Amino acid sequence: MAKDTYRNYIKHLESIIRMYESADIDNGLLTDSDAQGVLARAEAAINKICGEDSAYTSRTRAILGGGYIDRFRAELIIGIVRALKSDLEDGYLYSLSELVRGEMFENLIEMAEHLVGEGYKDAAAVIAGASLESHLRQLANKYGVSVDYTAKDGSTRKKTAEQLNQDLGKNAYCLFDQKQITAWLDLRNNAAHGNYGGYDEDQVARLIEWVGDFISKNPA
After folding, report:
1. With contact defined as beta carbons under 8 Å apart, do 123 and 115 qualify?
2. pTM score
3. Are 129 and 187 in contact (CB under 8 A)?
4. Which helix (H) or strand (E) holds 10?
């Protein structure tokens, strides 16, 4: 199931690239209507495949929020789509939401163990980190810790995993665990943002083992 989903993502990205390449051109750029279509499909695909904490997603947001006309935005975004397709073909990225539903895995930790055993340390690190963050949010609910905060502009935003860790370290678990979680979240962030040289396979294996033990000792 996971492999089929992976292939379908690649095919979908290919269709967006074909849409861009076959679109009408006006003064060297896409027409406004075609640009809107490319932008909408590309943004949706990148968000679905990569999630919130990805370099692809953050770069996409930066382009969409920049002071560009839509036709130039489309030209920039299609570069991200091509890079994402290439990384998917090379096996560097996994969609967490789809893999979690795969019948061959019972939970995130088992998935991470499987991936690191197959040599996919980067995907394993992201998945183990996602499992840790998910558990922190469940612990926050258990201990009555808010998962939201009010930003300076008055908007309500979700706390980061590290913010939750700092709050939970006050009464949910010991200072040693709090510091260890900070280190593991840093490793996860390196993996999520493409800094693959910032850690090695042994560290990822220890992360997976530690997260499994932490979840067992601190049920939510």
Report:
1. yes
2. 0.53
3. yes
4. helix 2-22
Is-contact 64 56, C-beta < 8 A? no
Q: Where in the chain is the domain with CATH 1.20.120.330?
A: 105-217
31 Rama sector, left if φ>0, alpha if ψ -120 to 50, beta otherwise: beta
DSSP string covering 141-158: HHTT--SEEE-TTS-EEE
Distance CA 187, CA 130 (A): 11
CATH of domain 105-217: 1.20.120.330
Integer-rounded Cα radius of gyration of the chain: 20
Sequence-distant (≥ 6) Cβ neighbours of residue 87 within 8 angstroms:
93
Q: Which long-range contacts (CB under 8 A, 24 or more apart) does 23-28 make?
A: 26/71
Q: What is the pLDDT of residues 115-131, one digit of tens each?
A: 898 888 998 898 899 88
Q: Compute the residue count for the chain.
A: 220
Give me the DSSP letters along 78-141. Answer: HHHHHHHHHHHHTT----HHHHHT-TT-SSHHHHHHHHHHTT-HHHHHHHHHHHHHHHHHHHHH
Question: Are the beta carbons of 73 and 64 closer than 8 angstroms?
Answer: yes
C-alpha–C-alpha distance, residues 151 and 133, integer Å: 21
State the chain's mean pLDDT as an integer. Answer: 85
How much is the pLDDT for 94? 54
3-state secondary structure of 159: coil
